[in-house]
Amino acid sequence: xxxxxxxxxxxxxxxxxxxxxxxxxxxxxxxxxxxxxxxxxxxxxxxxxxxxxxxxxxxxxxxxxxxxxxxxxxxxxxxxxxxxxxxxxxxxxxxxxxxxxxxxxxxxxxxxxxxxxxxxxxxxxxxxxxxxxxxxxxxxxxxxxxxxxxxxxxxxxxxxxxxxxxxxxxxxxxxxxxxxxxxxxxxxxxxxxxxxxxxxxxxxxxxxxxxxxxxxxxxxxxxxxxxxxx
Length: 230
Hints:
Elements: E1 10-13, E2 16-19, H1 27-38, H2 40-48, H3 55-65, E3 73-77, H4 83-91, E4 96-101, E5 111-115, H5 121-131, E6 135-140, H6 150-171, E7 172-182, H7 189-198, E8 199-205, E9 217-224
Helix pairs in contact: 3-4
């Protein structure tokens, strides 16, 4: 394997690939490359034709919580590069699937893709139009770009989770499910309170495919209860 500004050479030590530091390559980037080369989920995703190792996270969450059971309409927020959409179509081939991201996503068979921000009304309207009904499941693997400041990163991430929840509350059918990526410690108290008001069960989980050194967890809110008038 070669790279710009100096080759990447590797050698196996104890079954693991070691990456040498090349000219212009930081120690952190070398660690990232080593982790990718030695990650069994990365290898498994490539072998299965999945676009990302994150596909296994949804697989594992589905096996634990039956997220995709009987799902007919699914919205994937922050869907790039498309791994979660692939799992939805694999397990529910006839389901209507709408994927949304601010990044462009390569076309996926049977998936309606929207390039836009879910906080924009035009994007929200586009989602509603493509769904042509209420969703059984809203899944979100959205993550804010980190800036290295813990409080700022937390606020940015919580803002995305709240935007995802607002979308879910608007488009879910009664009994529906909302799944979202959160940081270590799970959803904060205010968000957790909102979830518990609108969903019968709210749990946190860290699927095995989520790296042990990652701060990500997932909140799984099931059995949506719409607000009643009066």
